[in-house]
Amino acid sequence: MSTATKPKHIGRNISRIRELRGMKQEALAIAIGVSQQSVSNIETSETIDPEKLNLIAEALGVTTEGIENYSDEAVFNIIGNTYHNTSSDNSTLIASSMNYQPTFNTVEKIIELYERLVQAEKEKVAYLEKLLKEK
């Protein structure tokens, strides 16, 4: 049995981040100047050339390191650490899930998320306008 670690599947990471950002393949394709089919091919590739990875990272609003080091486990850990169980018994997750309370001000987080989404949309519009002016 090999002890070598399996290389990260960059395409799968791009797909998951794109989905978490609520972005369709078509939108990413436009942002990086390729076809939707090319984005589909990228998302099935284990490796991607650094230049294209930089474009994709910029379009997704993350760093290349964020794409390379992305893991669902890390996201679930963040979500799991954001809540604490106030239930005094250790009943099943379904029964006790109603007792979970966020450890942050939800209204502030919603406003922060909204502001980031608005900023991301403004940046997308500016980028697309720039592309149109170049043509």
TrEMBL record:
Which SUPFAM superfamilies does the record cross-reference, listed alphabetically?
Answer: lambda repressor-like DNA-binding domains (SSF47413)
Q: Which GO terms describe its molecular function?
A: DNA binding
Q: Which CDD domains match?
A: HTH_XRE (cd00093)
Report the InterPro entries cross-referenced here: Cro/C1-type_HTH (IPR001387), Lambda_DNA-bd_dom_sf (IPR010982)
Statement: the UniProt record of this protein carries the keyword DNA-binding: yes
Top-rank taxon of the source lineage equals: Bacteria
Give yes or no: UniProt keyword Cytoplasm.
no
Domain HTH cro/C1-type stretches: 14-67
Record's keyword terms, sorted: DNA-binding
Q: What is this protein called?
A: Helix-turn-helix transcriptional regulator
Organism expressing this protein natively: Flavobacterium agrisoli
